[in-house]
Design goal:
CATH architecture: Alpha-Beta Barrel
Order of helices and strands: EHEHEHEHHEHEHEEEHE
CATH class: Alpha Beta
Radius of gyration: 17 Å
Number of helices: 8
Structural class: alpha/beta
Shape: globular
CATH topology: TIM Barrel
Strand content: 15-25%
CATH superfamily: Glycoside hydrolase/deacetylase
Strand order of the largest sheet: 1-2-3-4-5-6-9
Number of domains: 1
């Protein structure tokens, strides 16, 4: 793809998690993944975050995770498929009460497990289908979750990450490793531009890995979250890339 080619991208962000930046981030994104009361959030934060998204015309998504607030849902838990199904379904249902739900993106350890484990992926996909088969599934590009979602008839948005490094197999570098996060904003912006325009990302092993970038994740819980979102937003616009929510309602 030519670097001069204009295209559209979705910018998504995990919100409603108590980080304190939601009001500043919401105007800079197109899709919000809202915590549903398990790893973070409660009824009041769900209501407020949905209202904030509606105010700014941002697409609303459920962000279900493990019910493990102590570890912010970032510790893998061994749960049965039936328990996983109930875990995800109940969180989608909790957020859907406030209206406008268009997509689902698993959080943290649940996201990573579903990306590589077909049993977990099947349970997550089954839960989304049971809640509402028209919901778009946000899944790591090239992952088991993306494949499973498509196989079961869901619309899938393949997701890439602005501030995470990648392994040669296309998986994200585990957060336990010191090189998991990209802390240099210029490098993170360059990574996003390359994924969006060229469909590849440079892995920690030095090889280029093909990725499909339907949506880009911005993390909303760091002290530089807003400044980086503004910088990336400006860089994408300067490159002629337009913004549109993947799961935008007609």
């Amino acid at each position: 793809m030519s670097t001069a080619t204009r295209r559209t991208i979705d910018l998504n962000c995990d919100l409603g998690e108590g980080a304190g930046y939601d009001a500043e981030l919401m105007p800079l994104i197109t899709s919000a993944n809202i915590a549903c009361g398990a790893h973070a959030g409660d009824e009041a934060t769900m209501r407020a975050t949905v209202a904030l998204a509606q105010k700014h015309g941002v697409a609303i998504g459920a962000h279900p995770g493990f019910a493990d607030r102590k570890n912010f849902g970032r510790t893998e838990l061994a749960l049965s498929p039936a328990t996983l199904h109930e875990l995800v379904t109940s969180q989608i249902t909790a957020l859907a009460r406030f209206g406008g739900l268009g997509h689902v993106k698993p959080h943290g350890a649940l996201y990573n497990l579903a990306a590589r484990d077909p049993v977990v992926a099947d349970a997550v996909v089954g839960a989304v289908r049971a809640a509402d088969a028209s919901l778009v599934l946000y899944a790591l590009a090239g992952s088991e979750l993306a494949r499973c979602g498509r196989a079961q008839g869901l619309t899938v948005a393949e997701e890439v990450f602005a501030d995470r490094t990648y392994q040669p197999d296309g998986s994200l570098t585990p957060r336990t490793r010191p090189d998991a996060l990209i802390t240099n904003e210029e490098a993170a912006v360059a990574q996003v531009l390359r994924m969006v325009r060229e469909g590849v990302v440079r892995s920690t092993g030095g090889t280029d890995v093909p990725v499909r970038a339907d949506t880009v994740c911005l993390h909303g819980d760091g002290p530089q979250a807003v400044a980086f979102a503004r910088r990336l937003n400006a860089a994408l616009k300067a490159a002629g890339i337009e913004f549109k929510a993947f799961a935008a309602k007609p």
